[in-house]
Amino acid sequence: MTIGTDFVPRTSDLLYERRGPVALLTFNRPDARNAMTWEMYQGLVEACEHVDSDDRIRVFVLRGAGDKAFVAGTDIAQFKTFTTPQHAIDYEKDQNRKVGRLELVKKPTIAMIRGFAVGGGASIALACDLRIAATDAKIGVPIAKTLGNTLSMTTLARIASYIGPARTKELLFTARLIGAEEGKAAGVFNEVVDPERLEARTLEVAEQIAANAPLTIRSVKEGLRRLMEHARIGDAEDLVLMAYLSDDFKEGVDAFLNKRAPKWTGR
What we know:
- The chain is an alpha/beta fold and 267 residues long.
- It has helices spanning 38-53, 85-103, 120-127, 153-163, 165-174, 180-186, 198-210, 214-229, 237-244, 247-257; strands spanning 14-19, 22-27, 59-64, 69-72, 109-113, 116-118, 130-134, 138-140, 178-179, 191-193.
- Helices cover 45% and strands 16% of the residues.
């Protein structure tokens, strides 16, 4: 561990700052509800690397710019480039690696959630150790209604570890989102607070954690990660290809970008 200079993200779509022992990364595309570009995903990995390398940092907080969303998924326009089976397989593997890097951060991570945490945003939020949500927060993966793609086994396991298999099926089959109070009752959100108190309360929790023994916290975090990892299997590439190579996925992307309802055919 070394003390380094403060991190400068590779893109202006990410903002980074450090407030004493707390590092904050902001997803900064408020006009697009902070939808993630490939550059933002890579910048997230680099931010995680920096947080692990800087011993001034004890807690890592992630948040979205504006008041509409934490992260409203991956930028859908990027899926127009998917033309081969390998594109689909590589995408899911790459997402597992990049969001998985957030899970591997040695220091406690907190998702500060205002508005939507949807799709890839839900996966990022669930990869954090704690989630503190505003009363307007909504989390879920509504791909059965929007894109017609699928989730990696890692992402499915991440969701099911919080809400269980039956509720995971219900959530994904119906494509609905979980609101703040339901999320708190289900154990997805650690706390729910009024929007105007969200930042102050999140930083209060972060500073409380930062004052405690870092090696104790790291051992507990890593121990729990290893326990949860046993519930995960390798990627099922046949399921990924079934969804991403379908006519329905092409239809879902086109419908989303043109702001119309998709017409599913099951092919």
